[in-house]
Design a protein that fits this description.
This protein is an alpha+beta fold and about 600 residues long. About 20% of the residues lie in helices and about 35% in strands.
């Protein structure tokens, strides 16, 4: 899909400018449509699943240039006394490193000599090591918040036997040059560099959403009574907590305001045009849809909803060929993905429609297919996989799926609040396990809707008063922390070591340190590690965020895995006086605490929260 979009982008800018300048602000004929809106899940964005294509190891003998590097073979510094060791004071450079085919990322892992071989990575305050791949440099800075060794008159970023890694983008490169360079009197006891070449296996990033109709009680599009801008704005904070993006099915009669308002709330949006046999109304929809795509941040544009289904059931006279013409017209004037929404069985039998869209937006409703709630979630996934397997060259997004909370049974499908909750639980679990993107139908009940069996007003998992019907009030996964809870006195600054074992996965961006009342308690340095991995972060001083240390990049602590920690605290942090502390998020243990006076304890755990 992305390649198709890029082709359309070429040469379009002038046409887009001309179209915008010629756009008629006065709206055309009123649109005869049934407008509703959906919170979006789209597959337009991608993540990468990485696989290691090749691993190479470099010793100092493999480098082409050595400048101020003391090696075992030429031990002018007196410290390279072990075979294979090099002490870098200047730089080492390896040129013309060939890149394996399909490699896009290079991870350079520097191994420091083992215990007794030297000093590690050390130097004076504000010295550093630069690991460089061509012109891209990653800095390992040494500062005064790190452990200080009087014997060597240096601060230590890493010590004997440790490793540190940096990642580089090598896309579209055939070869690169690796440079390891010391700055401002830093020095590194180098054992080897391990180069891991990573290839990207493109995978669609799973986004999650729910269908959103803005109509309140007493509002009805068939009667010309539409939601106000205030109604839409009031829904945005609720939707922001429900899902990641929104999609609309109509962009007229005030619904065109949803996209710009969603932009204000940093909520992704995919506007949709309601297309039917009202051709004048269609022109207004298409023009508004194009204008939104050209002037606002949108993820996807959706041309029509169940147009082919309505034609085949005799509910409307707009043909598939006419729908394809509208899709083609929109594609010529926007640079984002273009699709349309249809039930799964329509996509299965209409290859020309598949070819017209950038990705398949599929509706799967087990209730309408008479499937028992006990098998409904599996049924949705089976139909999804059926279409994905039939059209492997196209991305497939579940455009609608849900379960009504009231109404009459349809075959083995029985509406109820309990069954709605059961379906949501099972479907969200399967969707997350399989990485399926979806729009859940729908956020709020809309009383104006009329459908067979009386289920029309009852698809929301919130009622029309914006109250949740059951415990599931979002399709987003819960946010987990690791929180030791509050501590207290006695307290003193020092160095804490121990380990943490979470009982659920935690994505960590920062560490908060609790402070005793009336003090500036904080942490100055933190390190988490195990045998194969480590991460560090440093305090940035007495700023507004003085109680938090923020990591350079987010990382994950995994359920059931034990991680070591070293935390250097300052001032008076809160302390939990326990050797081992079970908390709701797992277990944290103190190995040792050395206070500022050199006293040692085995039952001081700092009050921290990882989030």
């Amino acid at each position: 899909m992305k390649k198709e979009i890029e082709k359309r982008q070429e040469g379009k800018m002038q046409k887009k400018i001309e179209l915008f300048s010629a756009f008629v602000v006065v709206l055309l004929a009123l649109c005869a449509f049934i407008p509703i809106a959906c919170v979006q899940t789209t597959q337009a964005e991608k993540d990468n699943t990485n696989s290691t294509l090749e691993v190479r190891t470099l010793t100092y003998n493999d480098f082409d240039e050595l400048n101020r590097v003391c090696t075992y073979d030429n031990n002018w510094c007196g410290y390279a006394t072990k075979s294979g060791k090099a002490v870098i004071y200047g730089y080492m450079r390896k040129m013309n490193i060939t890149i394996p085919e399909d490699a896009t990322t290079l991870v350079v892992t520097i191994h420091i000599c083992g215990n007794g071989w030297g000093e590690g990575l050390a130097g004076p305050n504000n010295s550093s090591a630069h690991i460089m791949v061509d012109d891209e440099a990653k800095e390992e800075r040494i500062n005064s918040s790190m452990p200080y060794h009087d014997e060597h008159n240096a601060y230590y970023k890493y010590e004997y036997g440790e490793t540190f890694a940096n990642t580089f983008n090598i896309s579209r490169k055939n070869n690169v040059t690796l440079t390891i360079k010391m700055n401002n009197d830093a020095r590194l006891d180098f054992q080897k560099a391990v180069l891991s070449f990573i290839g990207e296996e493109k995978q669609l990033r799973q986004l999650k959403g729910v269908c959103y109709g803005p109509f309140r009680d007493g509002q009805n599009p068939d009667q010309g009574i539409f939601p106000s801008e205030t109604d839409i704005r009031d829904d945005m904070p609720i939707l922001k907590n429900m899902a990641e993006a929104i999609r609309t099915y109509g962009v007229c009669k005030g619904l065109e305001k949803i996209a710009p308002i969603a932009n204000e709330f940093d909520l992704k949006v995919s506007p949709g045009a309601w297309i039917c046999s009202n051709y004048e109304g269609n022109e207004e929809e298409i023009n508004n849809l194009t204008r939104l795509a050209q002037n606002y941040e949108v993820e996807t544009v959706i041309v029509g909803n169940e147009v082919v289904l309505r034609y085949e059931n005799g509910w409307d006279t707009l043909t598939e060929a006419e729908l394809v013409d509208y899709i083609t017209r929109v594609k010529e004037n926007v640079s984002v993905p273009v699709t349309t929404g249809e039930p799964w069985h329509i996509w299965a039998t209409h290859p020309d429609l598949v070819n017209a869209v950038d990705h398949i937006l599929i509706h799967i409703h087990p209730y309408w297919d008479g499937v028992s709630v006990n098998n409904a979630a599996n049924y949705v996934v089976e139909r999804y996989e059926q279409i994905q397997n039939k059209y492997p060259h196209k991305e497939v997004v579940i455009g609608e799926t849900g379960w009504p909370s009231e109404g009459l049974p349809n075959g083995e499908a029985v509406p109820s609040v309990e069954n709605q909750k059961h379906f949501m639980e099972e479907f969200l679990k399967l969707a997350n396990e399989k990485g399926i993107s979806f729009y859940y139908f729908e956020a709020f009940d809309e009383k104006w809707k009329v459908e067979p069996n009386g289920v029309g007003p009852h698809w929301g998992f919130y009622n029309s008063s914006r109250k949740a019907k059951h415990s599931i009030d979002s399709v987003l996964p819960p946010v987990f922390y690791f929180d030791t809870g509050n501590g207290g006195y006695p307290s003193i600054m020092g160095i804490h070591t121990g380990n943490i074992t979470p009982n659920h996965d935690i994505i960590v961006t920062k560490m908060y340190t609790g402070t005793c009342p009336g003090t500036g308690g904080h942490s100055e340095y933190v390190k988490f590690w195990n045998e194969s991995w480590h991460v560090t972060a440093n305090w940035t001083g007495y700023t507004v965020d003085l109680h938090n240390i923020t990591f350079d990049e987010p990382f994950t602590l995994y359920d059931g895995i034990t991680y070591n920690y070293t935390i250097r605290t300052g001032s008076y942090p809160q302390i939990n006086h326990n050797r081992t502390l079970p908390v709701p998020d797992g277990v944290i243990t103190c190995t040792e605490f050395i206070d500022a006076n050199g006293k040692r304890y085995n039952n001081w755990i700092p009050a921290i929260r990882l989030e």
